Here is the input.
Amino acid sequence: MNLQTFFIEKSLPYTPWEIEYNGETHFIDSAFVIEAILSTENIERYEISNTLCALDFQNKPIMDYLRFLAECLIKQNFEG
Here is the structure.
């Protein structure tokens, strides 16, 4: 699946999130997460693409998965 085309076709709303991690509040949004997804490669891109495809096929909310990935990005970048 072409991820860029997927996101264009889905027209997902811009969504800001506040994520608490290690006692700090972090601000991240869906546009940042989508750009991070588009910059992935190899197995990481493959796994994300498969998950998005499965969610879409099952009519599950894509934004919940993007929020989960936002939390992962925060944890990865602000490891205490």
Summary: The longest strand covers residues 16-21. The longest helix spans residues 42-57. The mean pLDDT is 96.
